What does this fold into?
Amino acid sequence: MSKTILTVDDSRTMRDMLRLALQEAGFTVIQAEDGVHGLEVLQGERPDVIITDINMPRMDGYGFMKGVRGDPQHRATPILVLTTESSLEKKLLARDAGATGWIVKPFVPEKLVDAINRVAA
Amino acid sequence: MIRTGSLAERRAARLTDGDAAARQIRRSTADGELVNIVQGGQFVSEDPDLVIATLLGSCVAACLRDPVAGVGGMNHFLLPGADPARGDSENISIGVHAMELLVNALLAHGARRERIEAKLFGGARMMAGLSDIGDRNARFAEDFLKREGIQHVGGSLRGDSGRRVQFWPVSGRARQVFLADASIVREAAPVAPAKVEPAGDLELF
It folds into this structure.
């Protein structure tokens, strides 16, 4: 059975690019537009891996990850942060919020698929 | 690369940001500071006396600002050209990345996405006969604004001559001068795409 990936990003362009890249790799893709929307989607879905941006309106990536980790259903789901940011300070914040790994944009489809397979194994 | 936190922190971040720093030249004039950016560069400011300038051929510069937050900035990018083996997605991703960096830098200065307005410049057809790189850059930028719901309030795209563009990031005023000699643009803006390594690698916590 194909793995299901939830992507959370406020940019429509980025959502479209992620969907295309992940579907081409054989994943089932579900998407949300910000942290609040992401937590809503997770009430009815059990993705194998979550990919989230950091800078988003309403609820940013840190708040979203804390919300995910606070839900017993998703406590162990791997979360990859995909962001333009690369500062150590932000990586530490993300790690403390429950991130599994960090990828700096622009994303390379093959590397992203490898990363998903690594953390989902 | 994105500036957040106090002004001092932002200044420090700017100084240590080697790649972006290498793509801008800063000098003081009688009227205020002038920052020149080249391909792959961007600059964001809240200084009403500062002007950001660049030279454009087939490249595009997006000038974004949030009139309420009083902050604006300019980037300067070129889609490197489609590699037939890989399709157009990698090509587009360069442009998407340039735009996202600029939007995020504005957000870090207090801008709100829904208030951002944009002027687009450049995308000229610099060489007859070849595929129209300028038009592809212009179309990408227009489509990006439409998809992201960012208001496109002006600027000047396409045509067949290079431009010198100046943008005042706080007032949003922009000025352009067409350049008669295309070689000025080619000399000023090397066509090597911006270095984006080591993007895309996974770092596990």
Observations:
- The radius of gyration of chain B is 16 Å.
- The mean pLDDT of chain B is 82.
- The helical segments of chain B are 7-16, 18-22, 89-108, 133-148, 182-188.
- Residues 44 and 73 of chain B are 4 Å apart (CA to CA).
